[in-house]
Amino acid sequence: MSASPFGPPLFAARIKATPEDFVVEEIATEPATGQGEHLQLWIEKRGHATTDIVQRLCRWANVAPVAIGFAGLKDKQAVTRQRFTVHLPKRVSPPLDTLEAEGLRVVAHDWHARKLPRGGLAGNAFTITLRELRGPGGDVPDDALRAAIEMRLQSIADRGVPNRFGVQRFGRFGDNVGQARRMFAGAKVGRETRSMLLSAARSELFNRVLDTRVADGSWERAIDGEVFMLDGRKSVFGPEPITPELEARVAAFDLHPTGPLWGRGALRTTGAANALESAVAADEAALCKGLEEAGLSQERRALRVRAEGLAWAWPAADALELRFRLPPGCYATAVLAGLCGETGEGAGDALPDGD
Q: Active-site residue numbers?
């Protein structure tokens, strides 16, 4: 795993000892309109993949998958609450109690004017409980280690974290990028698998650029030739000369430095930023060429993300509860990496992750 800008992991822990230890709630962009042909359902699920819920909704409403809308995928081994829409032109809904099952509960429902699009969310709220914390010597955290952990958490709250694509992006066995290389070399794959592998290849290139900037300390500041992203939006601008005003806006989290999501077209960066990104591209020429030939276009992603409202509590001597919010497309593992590594394998021997 890549080095953290906050220093080495402070502890090892067990992540997802139970699904209730990893709670995710979608933050809606807008409330249901109360009218229209799409039934919007807030569903709480435990131990179900989002795609499993889509299939169940299709059977429940006797509709094709195209009639189902959802904003994004959520963890299976977790308790998650997210919205789905079901297109019912005659506004006739089957009984809701016939939809519910073990690990699936309808929290709320209302009619809505539009199908819920992918990416149609303002973010996600997380409540994560880390259990069986052990320090470098394998002991339960004492007062000194707790103080160090809380100091690290405050630093994460103040500075944000590197906006890495999480391990989930690279497949259950971490081999999605290898499969992408084989696909670009001519191996045949299905449409859904192709999309997944393209995303993994793009994510790998972005993480490589981000790792380089973490190593030189520039992931949280502007460098020559930088392209900026406005906080909370996908709007980008630049490059332009670095001024004290731009530096102040970056420090205030109004702007973020960015890295490339690879595709066709020239890199937008110039100067030092372009040289760094071009060096990564040269090292991974086959991935870049494959993404370009697949028809993807150059895009940008913020290099850092802030864990909004980060708060913590100690429900037990060896348990730490974290609460925070992240924008769409950002990973909770990026926050955990600053504490105990993405999988909880921090200081000392690794503990099972509960999967």
A: 75
Question: Which domain does 95 fall in, by range?
Answer: 29-112
Tally of domains within the chain: 2
Asked whether residue 322 is domain-assigned, the answer is: no
Q: What is the CATH number for 59?
A: 3.30.2350.20
- Domain co-membership, 66 together with 187: no
Cα dihedral 220/222/228/231 (nearest 10): 40
pTM of the model: 0.90
pLDDT tens per residue, range 224-241: 999 999 998 889 999 999
Question: Is the domain of 299 the same as that of 195?
Answer: yes
- In this predicted structure, the answer to whether residue 186 has a pLDDT above a threshold of 70 is yes
